[in-house]
Write the structure tokens for this entry.
Amino acid sequence: MNQEKFTEETVLWVKHHTPKLMTFAISRPESYRFTAGQFSRLGFREGSGFVWRAYSVISPEYADDLHYVAVLIPQGPMSAHFAAMQAGDTILLDKTATGFLLPERFADGRDLVMLSTGSGIAPFLSQLQQPELWQRFRRLVLTHCVSHADELIFNHDIAALAEHPLVGEYFSQLTYLPVTTRDTTPEALHRRLPELLLNGELARAARMTFTPQDTRFMICGNPTMVRDTFKALLDLGFAMHRNKLPGQILMENGF
């Protein structure tokens, strides 16, 4: 990769939440621009080449640094690098952010439902720190589906939005629905997201009626979840959004 296309940034902090789940922050060059919902390409040098992976930004567009969440995969070269990473290390940042999981692509709609698994919650955390999202939609629903309850690592951050200086006044518009698939806990729904959509439990928990006229969906997570959730929404009468053919669904695989 041409060295003019990336910068070398400093790791500011690293936090390991579970053996396979971590968050970290890196410095942000003044020239780096992204839209909430997009992802960065992060990398490191390996021999005479590079290893690059995409990670959605958790930070809002106006942040001074960049926050990410990573799921560590056994035998994964990037995961091995992250597992040993410490504050003060350096990391490579592609100068160009990409991604199309952007709520402004919807031309209409009253309510927005954000469906995520694992690290797929990252783009939604970024968007929820932008006042424009709350002003654009009347109701917001955020779901975060994980296997075990200890993987719901963003519960505090979501609750803290109530005191956020830019979006706190809108907090009553948000319904947060944590979901677990293996553990059972009174604080979370228990079933895969496609099933919760098809049996109506998700809509009931949100105290909403999902309709093609009013409801817009964004999906981000592992490829199987994205595929199955998309199919469930199609079965419920919703359609993929395309630039020339407006619909109700935007989706992207989590990284």
About this structure: The longest helix spans residues 223-235. The mean pLDDT is 95. The two ends are 20 Å apart (CA to CA).
